[in-house]
Design brief:
Its EC number is 3.1.3.1. The chain is built from 19 helices and 25 strands. Helix 17 packs antiparallel against helix 18.
């Protein structure tokens, strides 16, 4: 046991250097986390303290005027004392943190002391003698940030509560009928979950058991107290369930995993028009964006709450899957959008226009040189029909340009447009008009616009045209080539003129007030191209910031951006129904974040979700098609096959 003592002492010293001399603000969780069976951890107390949990449990025996940390008497070790493992670390931390559990934080710490000895009175009198030596740490009348002491286990009878110092509180029993004075000494109600249910944490609570659990919660709350269930299942599904039911303390032996689950909570759940979804101030950002998008200002948390669901569109299906010729193609790409993002938005919104499309395929997304693609490799594959390396924009390993769909459609005598709710020089939109071996070469990419193949380009990124490294005044050069340049989406007109629209509002995250911006741009672009191109047109529309939300691990942002993209899909389907000769294709370039859906509510649409990474994942993506020849896109195939299928249809 000397090794254990040395390890504890070493980590104690390390803990002081890490925690005692820096400003540490305790983590705000949506629920109080209780570290149960702390003695089983490698470093008792510090493993829980390092996660900034509210409550830490310690099992104590009192023998020979000493307190020992152990669950069973036969496990008592003379080196594992209360003083060594708990008291001394707490005293040192309070001294270094200026009388608080965490320097700079008003959060308090609770120590739940379980009496394992038979002689409760002797135990408590000895404990209070020890704690009374340090009123600045344990007495709230001396220090308002004092450690909160609650006694559990062999708790004295309620009529004996007042025999002990007033700052010592006791674990309550829901079956007990406390007087008002006795109830003041109850710190929390702890209840054996197994008395209410045998649920193991898998799936969901059965109806009758749920009623019992809710009744226990309500009984505690009716007495103005909080509740903890011990003997409860200990995992994500259980933690989420207990939180949704209103349990105040989450009892866990998996402190690190539990705190990770509840940390940054506002970015892990969402519900439309809910008072329960807190309005969190601040911004959620990521450092995982590339050169053209790294200045993205982030998701403003308090502006992501929608007051009502987004309306969806149900198409007529008159031309869907028919063998009619295709005149127009509208290709919509949700950057970072996988099946989980679609499922989440669908369940939260209680419907998606995309999911009303009935022809469905699956695509693999690997780049030529990597199992997991970036947006350049995937966007280029979708644009050219060729498998590309990561970071390449529609160009081979040897620097040979791959013709994109816009090149193809221009040769067919059709006008082409590229729209993105992001930077026009970012990888996905760039793949439809530019060619380079490095996605960050924005100057090289945008110079391709001088070839005049694109009739419409809309997105953000004025810096790509002004203050360029190559010194070219690209706007002036483009105007010489016959382009008109506008800076607001509202100025995209069906006037037959080639147009570049750089609206910096499209760089910002979608919010309740701006959620329809991509849909408006799509509708105006369709109107412009359809009226000025009697031979037909090709339009690519990108929902860029579903990807940003994945990189930021911002679930509310993902919901809002996916719904924004869905509104654009609705505009494409509306036109397809009126036109009858338009093929609409909807997919993603890759999934971002490894989004996992934990649970939710069928009634309200509330959902809890987690990201498992802040990068792209290689999971297959759905492809939705609508209109003539839509049935040609069902089945499983590689992402670059989409462009090949489009070209094959147009050559008929």
């Amino acid at each position: 046991m000397k090794t254990t003592h040395f390890l504890v002492s070493s980590l104690f010293v390390a803990g002081l250097s890490l925690l005692g001399h820096n400003t540490v603000v305790a983590q705000q969780y949506p629920v109080r986390i209780h570290s149960h069976n702390d003695y089983k951890q490698t470093v008792p107390f510090y493993e829980a303290y390092s996660q900034k949990v509210y409550s830490i449990e310690v099992d104590l025996f009192y023998k020979g005027k000493e307190f020992y940390v152990a669950h069973d008497e036969e496990d008592i070790n003379p080196e594992l004392t209360f003083d060594a493992l708990y008291l001394n670390p707490i005293l040192s931390l309070y001294r270094h943190n200026e009388g608080r559990a965490w320097k700079g934080s008003d959060e308090k710490m609770q120590l739940l002391v379980e009496i394992k000895s038979d002689n409760t009175d002797a135990f408590l009198k000895a404990l209070q003698r020890k704690l009374n030596k340090y009123p600045e740490v344990f007495n709230p009348s001396v220090n308002p940030y004092a450690v909160r002491i609650v006694i559990t286990g062999n708790v004295p009878e309620p009529e004996d509560f007042d025999k002990y110092t007033s700052y010592i509180l006791f674990d309550g029993n829901l079956s007990e009928d406390y007087t008002e004075k006795q109830l003041e000494r109850v710190g929390v109600f702890s209840t054996n979950f197994r008395d209410l249910s045998k649920w193991n944490g898998k799936g969901s609570l059965v109806k009758e058991d749920k009623k019992k659990v809710v009744a226990a919660i309500e009984k505690a709350h009716a007495q103005g107290k909080q509740i903890r269930f011990w003997g409860a299942p200990d995992g994500m599904t259980a933690w989420n369930t207990f939180h949704m039911l209103g349990v105040d303390y989450i009892n866990t032996d998996k402190v690190e995993k539990c705190t990770a689950f509840f940390s940054d909570w506002h970015n892990k759940h969402y519900e439309i028009a809910s008072k329960a979804v807190e309005s969190v101030q601040g911004v959620t950002k990521t450092d995982r964006l590339d050169k053209t998008t790294h200045d993205f200002e982030g998701f403003k948390n308090e502006k992501l709450q929608l007051a009502e669901p987004v309306k969806t569109y149900v198409p007529s299906f008159e031309s869907d899957g028919t063998d009619r010729p295709v005149k127009n193609v509208i290709f919509l790409i949700g950057d970072g959008m996988g099946l989980a993002q679609l499922t989440a938005a669908d369940r939260v919104n209680k419907g998606l226009t995309i999911l009303n499309m009935q022809h469905l395929g699956l695509i693999s997304t690997s780049a030529k040189d990597a199992f997991t693609t970036d947006s350049a490799g995937a966007g280029s594959a979708l644009a050219t029909g060729e498998q590309n390396n990561n970071r390449h924009i529609s160009m081979s390993e040897d620097g040979v340009a791959y013709p994109s769909l816009t090149d193809f459609f221009v040769e067919q005598g059709k006008q082409c447009g590229v729209v993105t709710l992001g930077n026009v020089a970012d990888a996905t939109p760039a793949a439809f008009y530019g060619h380079t071996t490095e996605r960050d070469n924005a100057d090289e990419i945008t110079r391709e616009l001088l070839k005049g193949k694109i009739s419409l380009l809309a997105g953000s990124g004025m810096s790509n045209f002004k203050d360029r490294k190559d010194g070219v005044d690209l706007l002036a050069e483009l105007q010489k080539e016959g382009y008109q340049v506008v800076t607001e989406v509202a100025d995209i007109k069906a006037d037959g003129k080639k147009t570049i629209c750089i609206d910096e509002e499209m760089e910002k995250a979608a919010e309740a007030k701006t959620i329809g911006l991509l849909a408006e741009t799509t509708a105006r672009s369709i109107d412009k191209l359809s009226k000025s191109s009697p031979e037909g047109f090709f339009l690519m529309v990108e929902g860029a910031k579903i990807d940003y939300a994945g990189h930021s691990n911002c679930f509310p942002g993902s919901i809002v951006e996916t719904l924004s993209f869905d509104m654009a899909v609705a505009e494409a389907l509306k036109f397809a129904d009126k036109n009858g000769e338009t093929l609409v294709i909807v997919t993603g370039d890759h999934e971002t974040g490894g989004l996992t859906l934990i649970d939710g509510s069928n009634e309200t649409g509330y959902m809890t979700a987690l990201y498992v990474t802040d990068d792209h994942t290689p999971i297959m993506l759905p492809v939705f098609t609508y209109g003539p020849q839509a049935n040609k896109f069902i089945g499983k195939y590689a992402n670059y096959e989409i462009a090949r299928k489009i070209k094959a249809l147009m050559k008929k």
